[in-house]
Amino acid sequence: MDQIVINDSSHLKGQVKIEGSKNAVLPILAATILASNDQSVITNVPLLSDFYIMKSVLESLNLKTQLNESKNEIVVDATGELTHEAPFELVTKMRASIVVMGPLVARTGYAKISLPGGCAIGERPIDLHLKGLEKLGVKIEDHGDFIEAFAKNGLIGNNINLDFPSVGATQNILMAATLADGITVISNAAKEPEIIDLINFLNKMGAKIIGKGTSTLTITGVSSLLGVTHNVVQDRIEAGTFMVAGAIGNNDIKILDAIKEHNEPLIDVLIKMGASVSFEEDGIRVKGNYELKSINVETEPYPGFPTDMQSQVTVLQALSDGQSQMKENVFENRFMHMQELNKMGVNFRQEGNTIKINGSTHLKGAEVDATDLRAAASLIIAGLNASGKTVVNNLKYLDRGYFKFHKKLSDLGANIQRISK
Ligand code: EPU
């Protein structure tokens, strides 16, 4: 079992390179299922555990893959006969495997997918995915621990209004609709940059999707799609995590090639808290402040403040000069990291989906357990600013979303090590 060990607060200075986006590459890999002609070549893939799970899901469906790790490139060949079942061991390891359902049923007329369990950050049902697919004519049979989806005679375009702009449901329905007969309109669709990246890939493959980046997506179905080359967009959450690390004390971090438009609400929070953010030709530079100001933040679907940056920003709030609030509107149970931060000296009170965090915390090192991948990052950032030794356990979560996080931090000057116990 690996642990991260951090000793005493460190000054972080330098530049950091960001990987391709985890949350973009997963649906893009699922979309390669649609390419019945020619191979897909996906570049800038992040070598994260979730990426490897999705690769295994594709292989279990009889797609052929060739990964070149040194080039961060994967070639996927979906031109052969596909099988129909995403196995239990993989889907339970990674909930996002569910996004293979839409493309698989659209391409082959049948999909059998194990049900992703609840997960650490909330119940996370898939009702919106299923309702949307049903609207496209897919017959869904729910067997409790797996779902079968049938569309023997193909899919038919329809109007689908999502009750909530779910990222996964938008992706699943969008991919299915590319091969439906006629026009599909998805309203209240998610607008995240990862959705835009998926649409860019699908349109290159020959899909006809308009409205990307807006809440209404119009898809005119086509009869088949082609494998193409695509470079995955940069990971805005990894970039944002380093921005948060840069905002503390006398840190000074340049996040190379960071995309300002993808992180506006976070940048706004950092500036209001007193960090200095500058936009340079080759990236975004964040310089810290020893006297951060308290602030109230709430999470929203994009373009609002992202839930995936919530736990990292709670560390800044704990270091700020007064009481701050964090309201979580996307997931019902994403404050588990607060119990761990409490072991490091953070005082907070939870009222429903809001926490009130007392500022002026003197963080002290402790042994803590990561509870999800963003929690892992926030505990490490807290450890970098704590007196004494911090040990972070449960690194399987960190590895889902951050490539060589300790190495990138140590290159910036942190006193951090990853050890095997
Ligand atoms: N929801 C439903 N029914 C559904 C689908 C979603 O009620 O059918 C609810 C969920 O329970 C949740 C909310 O809607 O409360 C948002 O879920 P959404 O479907 O938008 O999220 P997701 O597709 O499951 C993706 C990211 C998450 C990110 C969220 C929100 C991937 C692989 N995951 O999840 O990323 O937090 O969107 O932006 O893209 C992370 O990277 O740390 C992470 C958890």
Q: Topology of this structure?
A:
Blueprint: E1 2-7, E2 13-16, H1 22-31, E3 35-37, E4 40-43, H2 49-60, E5 64-68, E6 73-77, E7 85-86, H3 88-93, H4 101-108, E8 110-114, H5 127-135, E9 139-142, E10 146-150, E11 159-161, H6 167-177, E12 183-187, H7 193-205, E13 208-210, E14 216-220, E15 225-226, E16 229-231, H8 236-246, E17 252-256, H9 264-273, E18 276-280, E19 283-287, E20 297-298, H10 310-319, E21 324-327, H11 337-343, E22 348-351, E23 354-357, E24 367-369, H12 373-384, E25 389-393, H13 395-401, H14 405-411, E26 416-420
Parallel strand pairs: 2-17, 3-15, 4-16, 7-8, 11-12, 20-21, 24-25
Antiparallel strand pairs: 1-25, 1-26, 4-6, 5-6, 8-10, 9-10, 12-14, 13-14, 17-19, 18-19, 21-23, 22-23
The structure holds uridine-diphosphate-2(N-acetylglucosaminyl) butyric acid.
Residues 23, 26, 96, 122-129, 164, 166-169, 237, 307-308, 330-331, 373-374, 401 line the site of uridine-diphosphate-2(N-acetylglucosaminyl) butyric acid (EPU).
Walkthrough of the structure:
The chain has 421 residues and is of the alpha/beta class. It has 14 helices and 26 strands. It has helices spanning 22-31, 49-60, 88-93, 101-108, 127-135, 167-177, 193-205, 236-246, 264-273, 310-319, 337-343, 373-384, 395-401, 405-411; strands at 2-7, 13-16, 35-37, 40-43, 64-68, 73-77, 85-86, 110-114, 139-142, 146-150, 159-161, 183-187, 208-210, 216-220, 225-226, 229-231, 252-256, 276-280, 283-287, 297-298, 324-327, 348-351, 354-357, 367-369, 389-393, 416-420. Strands 24-25-1-26 form a four-stranded mixed β-sheet, with helices on one face. α1 runs parallel beside α7, α5 (127-135) packs parallel to α6 (167-177) and α6 runs parallel beside α7 (193-205). The longest helix is centred in the middle third of the chain and has 13 residues, at 193-205. The termini are close together. It binds uridine-diphosphate-2(N-acetylglucosaminyl) butyric acid. Uridine-diphosphate-2(N-acetylglucosaminyl) butyric acid (EPU) binds next to α1, α5, α6 and α12.
